[in-house]
Write the structure tokens for this entry.
Amino acid sequence: MIDFRYHLVSIIAVFLALTVGLVLGTTMLQDPLLNTLQSETADLRGQSEELRAERDDSELLNTGADQFTDAVAADVLEDRLLDREVVLVAAPGADEEVVQALGGRVEEAGASVAGRVVFEEAFLDSGSATFVDELALQVAVDPGDLSGNPYDKAGTALGHALAAPDEADAEESETTEESEAVEDAEATEGRGRDNDDAEAEGAATEDPETGHDASAVLSAFSEGGLLTVEGSPAASADTLIVVAPASNAPEEDAERVNTALTSLTAALHRQVGPTVLAGGADSGRPGGVVALARDQEPSHATVDVVGRSTGDVVAVLALADSLDGSGSAYGIGEGVVGFLPDPLPGPVESAETEADAEAVAESGNEDEARRRAPRSGE
């Protein structure tokens, strides 16, 4: 008959066997196991040192590349955007220093920064989509032409407000204004000039075809707390740089935020013309706005290396490269055609230079024509 003593002896035997097994196992395996662990630790320590040295070398090389870029940027960018009017569009969360740096590079390329449009965080809030949609319809020249999501509509309305009139419209507007000025002067002879000055200032941002006030569109979005306007971007832009957020949106919001920004950029591009969507390296990785834009194969340019001197220059070269057609993808992310345009875009000839060259060609002076002709590689 099995009694309590039997159970007690069995339990003691089991624990004794476990104890003996542990002692024997640790004694026999201790040395080989420790040797293996020590060897692997040494290997990992060596790899860590190598990676640290490579990181330090990369940082030194990047710093040197930025110094070199600063030294040659003026020559590389000279006249690449000659006489262009660029508007800088900063997405919510864009780095102010990056926006300023891009503005400086744009001016080195011979362009003027007509102004900035800085979007507020409220513009991308999930609860603001309906307001953005309704506001775009209210201020649009022709609400029936708006389609797509709220940010497609907002981009179309804002792009129309930012876009400079083409030459034909500008000449027609100038002729009309001159004619109206003469009529007003005859009809209001002796009246003070203050009202005339105010009317002329207001007419500067009116659409020559519809009379729609572009500055009023920007003001409506500004008063709605969706953006801030700096400078005089209304009816001024013939090129755009859209600066992406400094960091990617949280994973749960990434798709919604990136879709909104890519829709906005594409709509602005359709209205204004040459456009670059520029962001840092993170923006070109999965989950980034530049990566999403590239998936959609846009007709505007994209760059994912801004934030350093070299990347800022690449962004301006990408804009220059897109003056004569659609843009491409530049930087280091997936889908790029190269780090920078190859070949580099050449300088833009001013209207005075072209007229001078034509006059020389017509004169028959071949030596002078050859002297004034652009050199190879320019």
Notes: The mean pLDDT is 83. The beta strands are 85-90, 112-119, 227-231, 239-243, 275-278, 301-303, 329-330. The longest strand covers residues 112-119.
